[in-house]
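Q: Convert this sequence to C-alpha cells.
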Amino acid sequence: MEYVYQESSLFRNRNPNLNLYYVTTGKWVDDSTINGAVSSLKKNLEDLNMFTDINFIPVDAKELQNLYRSSNNRIVKQINFEKYIPLPRIKSVREAYIGIISAQEYLKLIMDDSGNIIKGLFYDNVRDFQGDQNDVNEEISETIKSKDEHDAFVLYNNGITIVAENCNLSGTVMTIEDYQIVNGCQTSYVLHNNRKFATNNLYIPIKIIRLKSSQIKNHIIKSNNRQTPVTLEQLKAIEFQKQLEEYYKSLPKDMRLYYERRSQQYHGENGIEKIRIVDATLQMRCFASMFLDQAHNAGRYRTKLYENIENKIFQSSHDPIGYYVSCYAFFQLNSLFRKNKLDSKYKPFKYHLLNIFRRQVSGFKQPDLNSNKFIKYCEKMEKVLTNDEYCLEAFINTSTIIDQLINNKYQGKYDRSFAKTVTFTRHIKDKLSPES
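A:
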C-alpha cells in the first residue's frame, strides 16, 4: 500500500508550509523513480507561489510503527514540582530538571483515572516489573512500609528518569506530555502496589528530560540500566529490539511467538505458553547458529558468542524475518523432541541442526543479510516450518547429516562436547558445500 498525502494550512496563513508524505508499508530505500516524481510535483507547487516551504517526508513501515506507538502512548499529566533545579544546557536536550517529588504526586503520573498503573509508560524500559517476590522489590516495599525508614526512602532509591516530548513549568506546576519512564519501572510498580502507605513524607528522586531528538534517549536508557543486572543483548540496538517485538506480535496466532524484549514482560499473562516466549539471549543464539555459523558457541558460551557477533546482530538494516525464522525453527525442533518424533540423542546438536536446516532448505549460499534476497531466502524456510509434514521431513534430513559426521569422524559417539567445537561446525559446512 502506497500513497502520497498532502497537508497544508492554506486557510490559516497567507504563506503556509506544505508537507508531502509518501507512505509505504515496505522499506524506504530512497527510490530514484519516486524522488523524481516528487521533485516534479514540488516544482509545480513552487510555481504556484502559494507556499513558503515544501517538505517531502517518506514514512515506511518502521516509522509507521513508531507513529502508531506514539499515538497510543499520548498522555498529558500535571504534578506539583516544588523541589527542583534546572540543569545547565546539554547538547541534544531542550530542557532538563532534577529534584525530588512526593510519592503522592508521582502516583498521578503513573495511574489512570481508575487507579490502574499505565503500563504503556514503561515501553522504553529494558525490564518489565520483576514481581513482588524479587529481592530488590521486597526491600523497596519494606522501606515504604517501615515507620523508621519511611522518610529515608529518598536516600535509598536510585530514582526515576522521565523522557518527555514536551514539558512546561509554571511556578511549581509541571505539565508533562507524551512521556516515557525509561528508568524506575520497579520503583513505580512497588509504589503503586503499596500506595496506601504513600504519605507526604515519602519522596522520590526524579529527573525530567525534554529531548531535541530521540537519539540520546537510547544512551540515557543504557546508562541508567547498567546499574542493575541487564544482559548486553537487551541493551544492544534498543530500537531494533522494539521492531522485533512488533514483528513477532504481527504474525498469525498459529505461528505466534512472543519476543520478550523486557525481562518478565509476559510473566503471569494468561494464554501465553512459556515455550513460545523468546528472550534476547535465545534470539541471539538461534540467529547466530542459523545464519552466522556460531552453533558451537551457542550452547554454552554466551559471552564468547556475543563477543564474536556483537557487530553482526540486531542491526537496523536487517529484516526481522530472519530473527523470527531462526527462533521458530528452534521452537518446532523442540516440539519434535517433546513428541518423540526426533531421537533425543540429537539434542546436544540442536543449534547445529538449525544451521543444517537453513542450508538444506534454502540453499548453501546465503544472501547478504541486508538484502531483499535474504527475505525470500527466509520465506522458503518459513513455508517448510509452518507445514508439520514438511517440517518433520526436513529435520529428519538434517539429523542424517549429524549421523554421517558422528559415524565418520567421531567413532559413532553422540557426545555433547563435540557440538561445542569449531571443528564440528567446519565439518558440517564442508559436508554440505556444493563441492562436497
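DSSP finds 18 helices and eleven strands in the chain.
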